[in-house]
Amino acid sequence: MVKILVATKNKGKLKEIQEILGDLPIKLMPLPESASDVEENGSTYLENALIKAKTYGQKYKLITLADDSGLEIDALNGLPGIYSSRYLGKDTPFEEKMKNILELMKNKDNRKARFRCISVLYFPNEDKFVSFEGVVEGEILKEICYGNSGFGYDPIFKPDGFDKSFSELGTEIKNKISHRSKALAQVRDYIENNLLGGEMIEIKINGKRLPANKYVYSVFEKVIYAILSTLKDLPEIETVEIKIEKKEEK
Ligand SMILES: O=c1nc[nH]c2c1ncn2[C@H]1C[C@H](O)[C@@H](COP(=O)(O)OP(=O)(O)OP(=O)(O)O)O1
Ligand SMILES: [Mg+2]
User: Fold this and answer.
1) I need a labelling partner for 123 at 20 to 30 A (CA). Which of 109, 199, 233, 250 fits?
2) What is the pLDDT of residue 204?
């Protein structure tokens, strides 16, 4: 089975990556607790993601997934941005970082902000990588709104189209719309198309891909076909496409 090292020291990030890619037939390996820190001194998200992916990928000789991400606030000229983790010091609690940001934003009308994530998949044998970007637009709230989930700046960020913070919305919604899930959707496609062999099944309804893949489908194949044959008779369903593609084992 393909093994992929998830090169993050952030438990919240690790959990999200495991939830988003967990249904793929690959083994996601967390970093050992003993793994040393790396200095993220790049000047772009991509450079920082590559520093993490290459350092740990070469050390543990595994295909490695890393991301570098940040919160960009328009009224603060894009800060904290790539400094999101280091903002006010790496070990300063996020509560303090968020209070400081809310203070700076006190009289600002423009509350537009976005989370950006650059995900990198690094192949140590060939010293090659692929990278993917995901962005979620939103606003900075007027106060810290803690919910039951999330990490980092989630309690002060409200994604567009919702009226609660990422932290209050919960992991399931966050993982459908977040910067990280958008970058990882492309990582998923890359893995399915390039690292996995066998038969690939993709189901699209009205042109939209069903949020599951063949490893889910294969378990419920008969049920899924029965549901699809009913669905296609509903007026709001314009097209149901099922693509089955034989792939060479890689
Ligand atoms: O979904 C998110 N929800 C809330 N906050 C977030 C998110 N995504 C990034 N952020 C903030 C916090 C983090 O500290 C920084 C990224 O810094 P970044 O270096 O990519 O991650 P990190 O230092 O926490 O872990 P690691 O480098 O080991 O993967 O931006
Ligand atoms: Mg970091």
Assistant:
1) 199
2) 81
Contacts of 222 (CB under 8 A, 6+ apart): none
Is residue 182 part of an annotated ligand binding site?
A: no
Does the complex come out with an ipTM higher than 0.90?
Answer: yes
Segment 113-145, tens digit of pLDDT: 999 999 999 999 999 999 999 999 999 999 999
Whole-number Å distance between alpha carbons of 181 and 211: 12
Among 6, 9, 13, residue to substitute to test ligand 1 (most atoms within 8 Å of Cβ) = 13
Q: According to the model, what pLDDT value does residue 249 have?
A: 47
Measured at the CA of 142, the angle between CA 138 and CA 148, to 5 degrees, comes to 75
Sign of the CA dihedral running 84, 90, 95, 98: negative
- Residue pair 7/53 in contact (Cβ under 8 Å)? The answer is yes
Structural domains in the chain, CATH included, are 3-194 (3.90.950.10), 198-247 (no CATH)
| Residue from 19, 90, 91, 151 whose mutation best tests the ligand 1 pocket (most atoms within 8 A of CB) | 151
- Average pLDDT value for residue range 194-202: 73
